[in-house]
Design brief:
five-stranded mixed sheet, extended
């Protein structure tokens, strides 16, 4: 609180004065004794309202280190000046109080504060951030070359983050630098020359502001470009002559010059300006600069050649074999090329061959004729030059109709296949059907691939290799008549051979291969079948097993195997863990089922499964067996309790079925016994009391009672009761550990008192310790320590729990009942613990073995690794324990303990045989030993344990070798179909654990295991009687039956004991013969399956008609898998559920399905069928085309039908009828209603052909109408605000008048307004409007009304100076928006100025003495619309002057729309973006709603009509200096009404290609500067309209056509008003009767093939079609081309959209691309003196020659293109050179001139069409092309499309083509093309491109040329497959070309 000063004055008055501000309380107290007092609080207000501070040039408060800025302090009110500055951190910011500036010292943040001196409590602050200099600056690009008119985009990055922005400096040629994007550590800017046209170098540097050494630099080289060109050359030339042009340029520039000729066929020009006169005529030669586009031209006249003599003539034919009536072309080439001589072409027999005009010949009748080209007359009197060709005409009826295999072939993916290693595949006979009237009916057979197959004269084909082969049969009489059959040759895989190598412990590495080596399946997959894992592809690599596997499966496929696939199952390890389950069998010997019950969790809960051996899987509950059961049986209850086991039996089971379960501890105490469960069926032969049995419940329980008392005895190993043990006593001094004899299998020290205690509990025995613990709890204590876990380990062979005394001491053993609580306690004492407690052998192999069991080698040729273990007694006494960290109960492997040495010895069996061998700790069975041996009679392994050479223990163990001869298994029965491979498993049965092993192939190969099939031995693959053995591998036999009809054979397998003895020589073998196994094979008919095609609507479900079965026998089938071959990725157009299909998407779908049917076994057949899914119409619609709901008698209504959805395919037509057969109105089948009698009627519309949908149209017919005489408009006058609606109504007199349709119009004198068809008026500008309403039929009958509109003000702007000084009053004025707003007046007031200014009522501001500022407010009277403006007082500020000028420089306040040129100027300068930025000006457009835009060039664009203000402001000395300019954007539309209608109200065209003329009515009338434009908005494919409004049907389609009539400005094209009208076109569509497809039959992968589709008749209405590709992985069809992806064969199917029954197919083979090799010696040809080679001269044949290329006895065939004298020629395969024709080569069209020279870089006119041939001669089509200095887009037919601005990711920008697609680098891939972009993303064309050290060429189309020749500046270069320029010799099209180090090709004749 501030203190106040109080003093007294006379008269009892007191005064108070303040020395500050705040509150002061005065208290007054009486001096008398009463002490009365009173107080009062005074408030003193501070004179300072606010203080603010800012930095002058850094308003954001960010400074760089070393930067200085002045603090601007503002105090309100301004007369309370005086302040003190301070900073919060002087180490960051230095303050200069005297200058009022701050300087950044180091990186950091500080607060700058300004505090008032008048009132120190008033202060303002700004946080200043000081940023350090960047540590690095990077500028991209570092170097650039540009033409002087281009713009360079520069990117600057700097760091680290948070550092200051660098500053820009430049040296050299001045440039304008503009920042277009700014971010953290980033600036993007543009650089342009300040003065366009200069050239030189500019160095642009962005550097740190204080440390100029940190910088980034860009060096820009500005190149001049040509602005003018003068071309000189000859004015006249003779045909055949050459000349050179000269170019004069205004400046030397590196711009490329392009020469073009207006008529290349008359005068040709090369790219170096050389002219070649071709023929008489006139042409214009133009040269154009590449960048600037400057050009010059000359006109040259070409006269006739002087040479008249023709000394050589050459005739070529397109074909020399024709059918009757066929026409083909011919070409005549003469030498010299330029001559005025003439020639003729004649036929030797016009009755056979006729010569036509236009270079054509026509076949007339069968026979042979000679065509001769002959010089008309030789001027020198010599023999005229001539050439001739023979032509053969064959009859039309001569054809090889079909080639087909004589017998059935295999199929693969629906295509024929020959398996050359299957029976019938070594020789395949083919036949054909021939149609000919020739006497010779024979054919000649051939194949296209001699390396794959050979065929004899009888059509018998013998395969040699794998691949696709075409078998051809040609007529011997007419060899040109031929047909072919394409078939693939493949090889069936018969075996997978593998090799397994164990590298680490328990880790195997597998490698595998397919046999035979040329087998078609080339992939190998492997998986661990027991683990259920997926297949791994191990082709050509190793497969590592990281864990123990049960069973490995090898296969050549991962899905459904085919006949050519092979698989193999094999076990890798000898031991495997056995599943704890119990096998049950039925009473029936032939029962196919095995039932398993498994204890899943040791809790007596069982699952029941029935295994079907035939199907190879478990059955579901109720499937086939007739037995149903729960998924899992509930567990049994406690001992003695019962649980029900429900099992259901249906009438499918035949009789009694007994399930026998082998029981262990889960069922009862008698381990190994069997429990029988009986099931009775409810079939007719088995009846029970009370009716049929459908369910019977069985009981299953344990018969083991719970213990009520516990009787416990502790027994030693001899079975005597004993409670004290001396653990150190050994008889003989050395402990000998034995496993015992007979049934004794425990390793114990027989010569000592070992601490083995056996518990006798109530005399019970237990199969396991777990079983014991379910009944009894056993606890063992040593003192207070519980040692149960260490000492209680297992039960012995007699089922007694065993306690191992691990140490000396007194042990308490407590046994109690688990449920009853009865218990017994015993104490056992152990003394004198010795060195060894126990010593035993262990086998830690794949199969788990208890440590105290016999080492049993029961696997086939198995082995066990044997290790010796010991368990220590004492933690204190045994040093080994401490050293190796062994705890109680653990075992130490003695083999690894230092100091111990162990010796292993094996003892022979009593019969003298040694059945195993020992090495490396492993006992290995020798294999094939006797099955008679059981357990060994005595110990047969001895291990001596020594320590430091002294024997310390001896260990005796036992091993047993058994079951080395397997019991072989085969299925009892097996079913297979003819021609289908089946695989029969070959197993042996392990008797030890009821497990299967597989019979190995080597056992069969060695003869140990014998196989016979139908009595014939089976030893390998190949034929075996009526069967083919397709595979013989480990565990599996693959075979195919190829005979019919069906039958039965027997497959047998047995072991040859004598062969075993011969193989092994084992003396222990006794020659036992195991029982052989047999399998009855039932051979059924050949499996077949097909599905009928389906037609249905989308959403509809329909049944599938499936035909399947074996042979002629029919079966019921279902679809188990399917794939829609032509469905788009990710879509599912149909859904199939077994036998039903549902359509989800409309279209024609090709479905590949797998049909499965059952005939004793399941069969799967793959087939294809078509699904036609139509979008069904959901409803019909009908409407009157003019929206009418009635008419008068004698009038017509035009009904328009429709349906939804619009793409429905099942509505093919309509049927119209009158509901109820009404007679007062008639409707025809076009929907035209004629009213005859007044009344109410309804028309019914139905769809055709289904007639399932209907729609109704109801209408009212009135009597004939009374003519209208007058129109009254109400109200007659009205007032409204701007934009408000006024509703007018019209009353037609008399009231009974029938014609009541009216038209509303407005007379507005150009003011914006509108009136709707219903009479709603809206005026947008102030003024009076006249509303006129007239009859539509008679405009003279009308009425009017008057509307006065007053636009209300919307906003206010104050204009005028920004400052005022004393003695110089300034005038302010206001602008009210809109400009025609009506208002009362303006009130002015000063809301802030102190006493420094005053303002008058008219806005005159007078400034008094002093410096400050004033805020002026202007208010529109009667409204709350106001505006404010701030002015500087007492100081002069530089003013801004803003103007909007037109193109002529005159100031303008109105803009006539977006086409009117207007520019913003500030202080006389164009307000460009750079000017505003440099002068710190800010633009503000009000209102900012997008109606007025000002671009970076200062151009003002008026987009929406209205009034706008543009404010330009900048800050000067803390004040905003501004100026505002007002501009009005005019609508420019003076038209209020437009109506269009057809003549005679003909809203329908029904005649073929008929027409109707449309009329219009426009109010007011059309101005001279405007025009009426007619166009078709929708239905352009149905009809077209000309400029006079004549609409003509195209005769190709029916439907609705929407016509638009618009009024446009002739100059700008602006649309003022438009109206639409709809016309129904019908009766135009002509149906499709035939469709054809044609294309080449072969294509290389990676290339594309043109596909031609012909729809007949030619005037068919709907020529759309759908193309189906059978295998999308091989190729795809798009835009008339087939794109080959990978080798294979596909079928192209074309289907007419108009008539789905019309279709055609073509087969295409995609071949693997191979490198082309020279057809000669590979060397280049040497040219002779005249510049030609040997091959050149061979072209010139003498008269009567055959025109070939033969010389002597050798024949040389010319192939394709040849470069000669710098020009390209094309030769056909017969050696003839093509000329004056088109050539389709590698999917590109080339044009050859009359002289055979390929044309390039020129236009070519063919008839009425014109094409452009690019640099390399290829026609530009389906892409952009740079032609004649501008970009054009060419369609697929090579036609240049006008007005294409954007296509395929590119857009035209001036003369440039700019890529606007996704972000990419300078190389962009679009479709099959690669484009090169410059830094502005413009497409580069006609230039070399350097990239990665290689040169590429961007052709005329802009794309990088690949694998082709290209001409540049008269030289030919070759670009390889990647587009790189080749600089060495190449072989192309079989010819060798030499290229020098610059890539330039030399001519070659080879």
């Amino acid at each position: 609180m501030r203190r106040g000063l109080v003093w007294g004055e006379g008269g009892g008055n007191w005064s108070i004065g303040n020395s500050g501000w705040g509150q002061v309380t005065i208290r007054v107290t009486a001096n008398d004794k009463g002490g009365a007092a009173a107080e009062h609080t005074f408030s003193f207000v501070s004179p300072v309202q606010s203080v603010s501070v800012a930095l002058e040039t850094h308003p954001d408060g960010i400074l760089g280190i070393g930067e200085t800025d002045r603090a601007l302090v503002s105090i309100i009110p301004a007369d309370r000046e005086g302040y003190q500055l301070s900073v919060s951190d002087a180490t960051v910011l230095r303050l200069d109080d005297r200058k009022g500036t701050v300087t950044g010292l180091q990186q950091g943040t500080a607060v700058l504060e300004a505090r008032s001196i008048v009132d120190p409590s008033a202060a303002g602050q700004i946080t200043v951030q000081v940023r350090g200099d960047p540590g690095w600056i990077k500028l991209e690009p570092e170097n650039a070359e540009l033409y002087s008119g281009e713009t360079l985009h520069v990117t600057c990055n700097w760091g680290p983050p948070g550092t200051a922005e660098p500053e820009a400096v430049q040296e050299g040629i001045p440039v304008d630098w503009r920042i277009v994007e700014q971010g953290v550590g980033l600036i993007r800017g543009e650089v342009r020359l300040h003065e366009e046209g200069e050239w030189g170098t500019t160095k642009l540097t962005l550097r740190a502001k204080s440390n100029h050494e940190v910088r980034g630099q860009c060096t820009i080289t500005w190149k001049p470009y040509i602005r003018s060109i003068k071309l000189t050359g000859p004015e006249q030339m003779a045909a055949g002559s050459q000349a050179k042009t000269q170019v004069v340029k205004d400046v030397e520039s590196d711009e490329a010059l392009r020469y073009t000729s207006s008529a290349p066929d008359i005068l040709e020009v090369s790219q170096d300006g050389e002219l070649t006169a071709k023929k008489a005529g006139e042409a214009v030669i133009t040269v154009t600069a590449g960048y600037g586009g400057a050009s010059g031209s000359i006109s040259v006249r070409v006269s006739e050649p002087e040479e008249k003599d023709i000394f050589n003539i050459r005739l070529t034919l397109d074909r020399d074999v024709l059918r009757e009536g066929e026409v083909c072309g011919y070409q005549v080439l003469v030498e010299p090329e330029y001559t005025s001589g003439t020639w003729s072409v004649t036929s030797s027999d016009p009755g056979v061959l006729e010569v036509l005009d236009g270079g054509k010949i026509k076949a007339v009748a069968p026979g042979t004729a000679k065509v001769t080209a002959r010089e008309t007359v030789d001027p020198d009197g010599k023999d005229p030059a001539e050439d001739e060709r023979n032509v053969t005409v064959i009859p039309n009826q001569t054809a090889v109709l079909e080639v087909y295999p004589a017998g059935p072939l295999w199929e693969r993916n629906g295509e024929p296949v020959i398996y050359k290693n299957l029976p019938g595949g070594r020789e395949v006979e083919f036949a054909c059907r021939i149609l000919t009237d020739a006497a010779d009916q024979s054919v000649r057979w051939s194949v296209d691939r001699a390396d794959l197959a050979e065929i004899d004269e009888n059509g018998v084909l013998r395969p040699l290799g794998n691949g696709m082969v075409v078998v051809t049969a040609a007529s011997c009489a007419y060899p040109q008549a031929a047909a072919g059959y394409q078939v693939e040759i493949r090889t069936v895989a018969t075996e997978i051979r593998y090799r397994a190598v164990e590298r680490n412990w328990g880790q195997y590495v597998l490698t595998a291969s397919v046999w035979p080596e040329d087998a078609s399946p080339d992939r190998i997959y492997c998986r661990d079948q027991s683990a259920g894992e997926a297949f791994h592809d191990i082709t050509g690599r190793e497969y590592t097993l990281e864990r123990i596997e049960h069973l490995l499966e090898f296969s050549t496929c991962t899905g459904q195997p085919t006949v050519e696939d092979v698989s193999r199952r094999t076990g890798i390890f000898q031991s495997q863990e056995v599943e704890r389950r119990y096998e049950l069998h039925s009473f029936h010997a032939e029962e196919l089922y095995t039932v398993y019950t498994s204890d899943l969790d040791d809790q007596n809960g069982f699952s029941l499964r029935i295994y079907d051996k035939e199907r190879g899987r478990y059955l579901k509950s109720g499937e086939r067996s007739g037995i149903s059961w729960p998924a899992v049986f509930e567990r049994c209850g406690g001992y003695g309790e019962e649980e029900q086991l429900p099992i259901w039996v249906s009438d499918e089971a035949d009789g009694l079925l007994q399930l026998r379960a082998q029981a262990e501890d889960q069922l009862n105490s008698l381990s190994g016994t069997f429990t029988d469960i009986h099931f009775l069926s409810s079939g007719p032969r088995w009846a029970v009391e009370g009716g049929e049995l459908s369910r019977k419940e069985y009981r299953i329980c344990s018969d083991w009672p719970l213990p009520e008392t516990v009787n416990l005895r502790c027994l030693d190993r001899a079975g005597d009761e004993r409670y004290r043990y001396d653990l150190s006593l050994y008889e003989g001094g050395i402990p000998e550990f034995h496993c015992g004899g007979g049934d004794q299998i425990f390793y114990t020290a027989a010569n000592s008192e070992q601490g083995e205690v056996y518990l006798d509990i109530n005399g019970e025995t237990f199969p396991s310790l777990e079983a014991c613990e379910k009944r009894y709890d056993i606890l063992i204590y040593c003192g207070e320590e519980n040692v149960t876990g260490r000492m209680l380990k297992q039960v012995d062979g007699q089922g007694r729990p065993q306690v191992l005394l691990m140490d000396q001491g007194v042990f308490t053993i407590i046994v109690s009942g688990a449920k009853t609580g009865a218990a017994a306690v015993r104490q056992v004492t152990a003394e004198n613990a010795g060195s060894f407690y126990n010593l035993f052998l262990e086998c830690p192999a794949a199969e788990f073995q208890l440590v105290d069991q016999i080492c049993t080698l029961q696997q086939f040729r198995g082995s066990r690794s044997i290790y010796t273990y010991k368990a220590p007694f004492s933690r204190e006494s045994d040093p080994v324990t401490v050293r190796y960290g062994v705890q109680y109960g653990n075992a130490v492997r003695l083999d690894d303990v230092p100091g111990y040495e162990l010796t292993y010895e094996l003892k022979a069996d009593p019969d003298g045989g040694l059945r195993a061998e020992y090495s490396d700790h492993a006992v290995t069975a020798r294999g094939y030993t006797s099955d008679t041996q059981t357990a060994p009679p005595s110990e047969n392994i001895r291990v001596t344990v020594k320590r430091e050479g002294e024997t310390v223990a001896v260990l005796y163990g036992r091993y047993q070798v058994q079951w080395q001869l397997p019991t072989l298994e085969l299925p009892k029965e097996w079913y297979l179909a003819v021609g289908r491979e089946c695989r029969i498993p070959l197993y042996y049965q392990s008797q030890y654990r009821n497990e299967r092993g597989i019979v190995e192939l080597r056992d069969i190969e060695e003869g140990t295991v014998k196989l016979t099939l139908d009595g014939r031995p089976v030893t390998g693959t190949g034929e075996c009687g009526d069967f083919v053995i397709t595979g013989l591998r480990d565990g599996e036999l693959g075979l195919i039956c190829q005979r019919e009809p069906a039958g039965e054979v027997e497959l047998r397998v047995y072991v040859d004991g004598e062969q075993i003895f011969q193989n092994t020589g084992d003396p222990s073998h006794r020659g036992e013969q195991p029982v052989e196994a047999a399998c009855r094979l039932h051979v059924l008919g050949k499996a077949r399956g097909e599905v009928e095609n389906v037609v249905l609507d989308v959403g509809e479900t329909a049944p599938l008609v499936i035909h399947c079965g074996l042979g002629d026998e029919a079966s019921e089938g279902e679809i188990i898998a399917y794939k829609v071959l032509n469905a788009p990725a990710g879509s599912q157009p149909v859904r199939i559920n077994h036998t039903r299909i549902m359509a989800l998407e409309a279209g024609e779908w090709l479905v590949q399905a797998t049909v499965r049917f059952y005939n004793l076994v399941y069969y799967d057949v793959v087939c294809q069928f078509r699904v036609t899914a139509r979008n069904p119409a959901q409803e019909l619609t009908v409407a009157e085309r003019n929206g009418r709901t009635g008419c008068a008698v004698g009038e017509k209504l035009y009904l328009v039908p429709g349906y939804s959805p619009a793409d429905a395919g099942n509505v093919l037509g309509y049927a119209w009828e009158m509901k109820g057969g009404a007679q007062g109105a008639q409707v025809d089948q076009n929907g035209t209603v004629t009213a005859e009698v007044a009344g109410d009627y309804t028309v019914v519309l139905r769809d055709l052909p289904e007639r399932s949908l209907s729609a109704e149209y109801s209408f009212h017919v009135e009597e004939a109408q009374v003519k209208a005489e007058a129109v009254e408009v109400s109200p007659a006058s009205a007032q409204a605000g701007g934009g408000e609606n006024v509703q007018f109504t019209a009353l037609v007199r008399p009231e009974e008048a029938g014609d009541r349709e009216v038209v509303w119009e407005v007379e507005a004198d150009g003011r914006a307004c509108s009136i709707s068809r219903s009479g709603v008026f809206q005026g947008m500008r102030t003024g009076d409007y006249t509303v006129r309403c007239s009859l539509a039929e008679d405009p003279a009958v009308c009425g009017t009304a008057v509307v006065h509109v007053e636009v209300r003000p919307e906003r206010l702007e104050i204009l005028g100076p920004s400052c005022a000084t004393e003695g110089c009053p300034v005038q302010l004025w206001t602008v009210v928006f809109p400009s025609d707003a009506v208002y009362q007046g303006i009130t002015w007031e000063l809301i802030e100025s102190g006493d420094l200014a005053e303002i008058s009522g008219n806005g005159l501001l007078t400034c008094k003495e002093g410096i400050g500022k004033a805020r002026v407010r202007a208010v529109i009277d009667g409204t709350d619309i106001s505006a404010e403006r701030e002015l500087a007082l007492g100081r002069e500020l530089p003013e801004l002057r803003a103007e909007i000028r037109g193109a002529d420089g005159a100031v303008k306040g109105e803009i006539q729309g977006s086409g009117d040129s207007a520019y913003l100027y500030v202080n006389g300068n164009r307000a460009t973006g750079s000017y505003l930025e440099q002068n710190h000006c800010v633009l503000l457009v009000k209102p900012d709603a997008g109606g007025l835009k000002i671009d970076g060039a200062g151009c003002v664009h008026g987009l929406l009509a209205g009034d706008y203000s543009v404010e330009v402001s900048r800050e000067v000395e803390g004040f905003a200096v501004r100026d505002t300019v007002r501009v009005t954007v005019m609508d420019g539309n003076c038209y209020q009404f437009l109506e269009i209608w057809p003549e005679q109200d003909a809203y329908q065209i029904t005649e073929q290609a008929g027409n109707v003329r449309l009329r219009y009515r426009l109010v007011p009338q059309l101005r001279e500067e405007d025009e009426i434009v007619w166009s078709v908005e929708s239905g352009r494919d149905i009809a077209e309209i000309n400029g006079d409004g004549l609409l003509t049907a195209k005769g190709a389609a029916d439907g609705l056509v929407t016509v638009k009539c618009a009024v446009l400005d002739r100059e700008s094209g602006r649309e003022y008003i438009s109206q639409n009208c709809t016309i129904l076109v019908s009766g135009q569509v002509i149906g499709v009767s035939e469709i054809r497809i044609s294309c080449a039959g072969e294509v290389m992968e990676g290339e594309r093939l043109p596909v031609e589709v012909t729809v007949l008749p030619e005037n068919a209405g709907n020529k759309e079609y759908q193309m189906l590709v059978s295998n999308p992985e091989v190729g795809a069809f798009r835009d008339g081309w087939f794109y080959a992806r990978r080798p294979g064969k596909v079928t192209l199917t074309v289907i007419s959209e108009d008539n789905r029954a019309c279709e055609d197919t073509a087969e295409v083979i995609v071949k693997k691309k191979e490198e082309t090799v020279p057809d000669g010696d590979g060397g280049s040809g040497e040219t002779d003196g005249n510049g030609g080679s040997e091959a050149d001269r061979s072209d010139k044949t003498s008269a009567g020659g055959n025109g070939g290329a033969s010389r002597g006895s050798s024949a040389e065939v010319f192939t394709f293109w040849r470069l000669r004298d710098g020009k390209w020629y094309y030769y056909r395969a017969d050696g003839t050179m093509a000329a004056d024709s088109w050539v389709l080569y590698r999917d590109q069209w080339y044009r050859l001139g009359a002289d055979g020279v390929m044309l390039n870089n020129s236009w070519f006119r063919d008839g009425e069409k014109q094409y452009y041939l690019s640099d390399n001669g290829a026609m530009i089509r389906g892409c952009w092309g740079h032609v004649d200095g501008q970009w054009r887009y060419f369609d697929q037919n090579g036609q240049s499309l006008p007005d294409v601005e954007a296509r395929d990711g590119f857009r035209l920008s001036g003369r440039d083509l700019v890529y606007v697609g996704p972000d990419a680098d300078s190389w962009v891939n679009v479709g099959i093309y690669t484009y090169c972009l410059d830094e502005r993303r413009r497409v580069m064309t006609g230039c070399w491109v350097d990239r990665g050290g290689e040169r590429y060429y961007a052709g005329a189309g802009g794309w990088i040329l690949r694998n082709q020749w290209n001409e540049v500046d008269g030289n030919w270069y070759f670009l390889d497959g990647e587009g790189r320029m080749v600089r060495e010799s190449i072989v192309w099209e079989g010819k060798c070309y030499q290229l020098d180090e610059n890539g330039i090709a030399r001519d070659t004749g080879r």
